[in-house]
Amino acid sequence: MSSKRVDREDAELNAAKVAEVAQADTLTPADRYQELFVAVQAGRIFADSKIFVDCAPLGDPEDILETYRAQKAAPDFNLAEFVHAHFRPEQPPKSRYVSDPDRTLAEHIDYLWGVLTRQPREHPVRSSLLPLPNPYVVPGGRFGEMYYWDSYFTMLGLADSRRLDLMRSMADNFAYLIDTYGHVPNGNRSYYLSRSQPPVFALMTELFETHGICQAVRYLPRLRKEYAYWMEGADELRPNEAHRHCVRMEDGALLNRYWDDRDTPREESYIEDVSTAVKGSRPVHGVYRELRAGAASGWDFSSRWCDDGAGLETIRTTAILPVDLNSFLHKLEAQIAQLAAACGDEVSADEFDRRAAARRQAIDRWLWSETAGAYFDYDCQHGRPRKRLYAATLTPLFVGLAGQSQARRVAEIARARLLEDGGIGTSERFSGEQWDQPNGWAPLQWMAVKGLADYGETEISREIGRRWLTTVRSLYQREHKLVEKYVLQLAPEGAHGGGGGEYPLQDGFGWTNGVTCRLLHDDAFT
Fold first, then answer.
1. I need a labelling partner for 225 at 20 to 30 A (CA). Which of 42, 264, 312, 425 fits?
2. DSSP string covering 90-141, please?
3. What percentage of the chain exceeds 70 in pLDDT?
4. Is 311 helix (H, G, I), strand (E, B) or coil?
5. Which has the closest alpha carbon to 65: 22, 24, 23, 29?
6. Pair 511, 442: CB distance under 8 Å
């Protein structure tokens, strides 16, 4: 059976399932509620900007807006009372789960999968939550939807917990999103549709095949659709031109950047973005675009996207060509080539082999520093590589595009400048943002561990994995939970959860559970 026929049959099945799920509002909360949205967010009716955009309306959205317009000028009008009368804040599904201190860390993670699983048939009507055909795993805490790149790292743990049913469900969910929207949104919320996240669906398809869920070739049409999204407009670019995600370099090479199609405050972080933008001297809509593009990177936020030594108001994500994004796109190109060859489509296989080779050459030309022995993001605004080292330098190893000597040198610099007590550091800078010192993140640990091991850098790979497990175990033994991020400099009493950024530390936590579970099932780290 051809992949196109399978693609069509899968799409029809997914569409039939979604038809039985409550439909989301056709507009984002900001577009739907207009001045009501601004009043609620600017007035801090909720302590967290995300709460309102995740609320379920208790009536027809158009009627709610009309009622607001009719009542807002009344002397006794109370905005908070109006909001609570017409909207219901999202509540996590009821669970009887209570953390049991007698459970091992592995047992705790196995039990958590059910707690973090959401059922599409429980979606509220006309909210921002996009329908999906199958159950899915959320990160936890304030994040009650399925996130794109989070889910790959979550799946690592689902595989080792033998929750292959959930992996298959989520695979088809991502396929449905690509079929419906042409890309995988940041998360399944209407306000996330204008951007994606690091493109890891190609990595997911490998995982599905490795664990016998389905053949990767089944998803080839979706991989090609996703690639078209990331490369839209590239063919028309001349040297030193950019369009959406694509940048044509002066030598004709193509590289990619993060992008968001909107230039308004993020709806889930409205007041935070407004406050950031007014601190700088640039037009605010330009700052909003850069903040949104930073959110598309998954590293929201980091000194990585800002002027050296400056605050978040200097963010300029779209001027930076990231090592990790271009590594993931190289993997996507290589995966399409491999699967096309498996289908007998030699023309497509040759085309994508050429594209992958061209991107690898461009990465070596623009993102590799022979002097430093590491990969660095490229700064288009200043016409030079960025100076600061980030854990993203390990991504080319993770996707297998580095040469052996490059991998050896990256291992050396990672040990010298990024290795911390608790694992691999995110950056070398303390900026107050969460994707910087002193925080460590599960996805960065896994990419470092796996990438280094694949190139024979066994000692440092195992060292990172063991230190990370020590960190996670330490906090679990004291507080009986896993969290979103961790401080990598260990205190005398043990590990602590990380800080910084726009919101408090979140418990859960999907990708921490997934990576930790994967390491726990490998004797090299226990």
1. 264
2. --PPP------TTS-HHHHHHHHHHHTEE-GGGPPTTSSB---SS-EE--BT
3. 98
4. coil
5. 29
6. yes
Round to whole Å and give the CA distance between 6 and 24: 27
Q: What is the 3-state secondary structure (H, E, C) of 9-74?
A: HHHHHHHHHHCCCCCCCCCCHHHHHHHHHHHHHHCCCCCCHHHHHCCEECCCHHHHHHHHHHHCCC
State how far the alpha carbon of 195 is from the alpha carbons of 231, 245, 262, 263, 297, in Å: 14, 10, 8, 11, 10
Q: How many residues make up the chain in this entry?
A: 526
Burial of 63 per CB tally in 10 Å (0-12, 13-18, 19+): exposed
Q: What is the pLDDT of residues 466-525, one digit of tens each?
A: 999 999 999 999 999 999 999 999 999 999 999 999 999 999 999 999 999 999 999 989
In 182-316, alpha helices (H): 201-210, 220-231, 270-277, 284-296
State the virtual CA torsion across 74, 76, 78, 82 in degrees, nearest 10: -60
The whole-angstrom distance between residue 222's C-alpha and the CA centroid of its chain comes to 18
The span from the CA of 89 to the CA of 156, in Å, is: 31
Closest Cα to residue 412, out of 394, 430, 400, 399?
Answer: 394
| Residues 231, 155: Cα–Cα separation, whole Å | 27
- Cis preceding linkage at 77, omega within 30: no
| CA dihedral angle for residue 496, residue 498, residue 504, residue 505, rounded to 10 degrees | -70
Which token pair is 351? 């085309």
Among all residues, which ones are annotated catalytic? 300, 484
57 in Cβ contact with 127 (< 8 Å): yes
Note if the pTM is more than 0.85: yes
Query: Model confidence over 116-145: pLDDT tens digits?
Result: 999 999 999 999 999 999 999 999 999 999
Residue 368 host element (H or E): strand 368-369
How far is it, in rounded angstroms, from Cα 85 to Cα 71? 13
User: Long-range contact list for 218-223, CB < 8 A, 24+ apart?
Assistant: 218/3, 218/6, 218/7, 218/10, 219/171, 219/175, 220/3, 220/7, 220/336, 220/339, 220/340, 220/343, 221/3, 221/4, 221/7, 222/7, 222/174, 222/175, 222/178, 222/179, 223/332, 223/335, 223/336, 223/339
Neighbouring CB atoms inside 10 A of 307's CB total 15
Taking the C-alpha atoms of residue 197 and residue 184, their distance in angstroms, rounded to an integer, is 8
Q: Decide: residue 139, CB within 10 A, 0-12 exposed, 13-18 middle, 19+ buried.
A: buried
What's the CA gap between 77 and 85, in Å, rounded? 13
Q: Could you report the per-residue pLDDT of 284-297, keeping only the tens digit for each?
A: 999 999 999 999 99
The DSSP call for residue 497 is B
**Contact present, 255 and 377 (Cβ < 8 Å):** no
Q: Is the dihedral of CA 170, 171, 173, 178 positive or negative?
A: positive
Please name the helix (run of DSSP H) or strand (run of DSSP E) that holds residue 413, with its range, or none: helix 404-417
- Calpha distance 10→172 (Å, rounded): 8
Q: Whole-angstrom Cα distance, residue 391 to residue 456?
A: 19
Per the DSSP assignment, residues forming a β-bridge with 369 are: 374
Q: How far apart are CA 354 and CA 3, in angstroms?
A: 22
Distances from the Cα of 222 to the Cαs of 101, 154, 184, 227, 229, in angstroms? 43, 21, 10, 9, 11
